[in-house]
Amino acid sequence: MNDRMQRGSFGDIALNTNASSLRTETFNSFFPNSNLMKSIKLFILLTAVLLLCSCGGGKGKKSYDKVGLDGLTERTENLRDNLKTYVNKGIMIGQMYGTIEGIGWKNDSARSDIYEITNDNPAVVGYRIDGIESGADINPDSLRFADIRKNVIDYFHRNGLILMSWAMPEQTDDDKQIDLWTQELAKFFDSLQDQYGIKAPVVLFVNPLHQGTWYSSLSKDDYEDMFEKVTDALKDKEVTNVIYGYSEEWNGQQLRGFYPDGISVINLTYLLHANSGNGDEYAVTLNRVLPQLASAASDNDAVAGLTTGIEGLSDSTFFSSRLLPCLHKTRLSYVMFGPNHGDFKDGHYYVPYPGISNDLIHDFTNFYNDPLTVFLSSLNGLYLKH
What we know:
Elements: H1 10-30, H2 34-54, H3 74-85, E1 91-96, E2 101-102, E3 105-106, H4 113-118, E4 124-128, H5 145-157, E5 161-166, H6 175-190, E6 202-206, H7 220-236, E7 242-249, E8 265-272, H8 279-299, E9 303-310, H9 318-327, E10 334-337, H10 358-369, E11 373-374
Parallel strand pairs: 1-4, 1-10, 1-11, 4-5, 5-6, 6-7, 7-8, 8-9, 9-10
Antiparallel strand pairs: 2-3
Helix pairs in contact: 6-7, 8-9, 9-10
């Protein structure tokens, strides 16, 4: 904060002015040579300016963001460590874009569809940042990066877990191009800081394996090499508030298992679009794949997370009868539901919102009240050392 000089009354100023005049007359009496007098005055003035500059003039912004031994901010190191211990305390529950967009609203940091139902906020929020490397103003889901930045800082202050994903726009072996892209990424992560210079820690999923991405056809070795190029470039650019994760979409057959070195989180995405499946099939699949996910996380010294949901919520007992029993069998760090967006008539929602059927609200309330599920009000000290 800027230091501010206090000023007195006009009388005080007048008194100081008279005193200054007296000092000038005394000065002139001792140094009658005008050139010498001007030189000394100039010397005194320059000395005062240098002293003021050396003190920062009260304009410097002190940062309270310390960097730890691993080259990450201490809060980011604490997040990495705490994600493992929090597995024993329950599963953090969140939603993609959960605090920046919902049914019938957008860019209102005081709102959340989950909050409107439970009077509690999601413990986890997720964002796509594709396009930031090319200087775009909005991400692929039409959300402004400026709003995402503001939302991230706000949710960091509220102690929520922040997940981000970034996909390279095209296949390239041009290291200069990768350097340019990661330079823009580094600028964005550096900008995720508050007025004290404290940066929001982020879990970044580099090139999540989803259907239709150009890198989904790569071999395991080629994918890992590309992943390493990106993460090494970000580390070289001194990105200090990011830990890295690997994410893949369930393809209906088996986990691909492209697990690069240095990852802290393994995420599985299993989202069913409207009319593409039912609750019974969903539960059967989860019961089969979640143990594999948890085992892979353990083998890679990482934690497991799940991005999931059924769009349109055609199953009124989805949360308490389909999903929750599966979660009780597996050690996960978090579950993040798909996003709510647009008008309710379009059916693009994965969690209940105000105005939906009472059966779905009641079902989600039972899910919320289960001791296993952790929402924001119960999430404490995620960025503190324990």
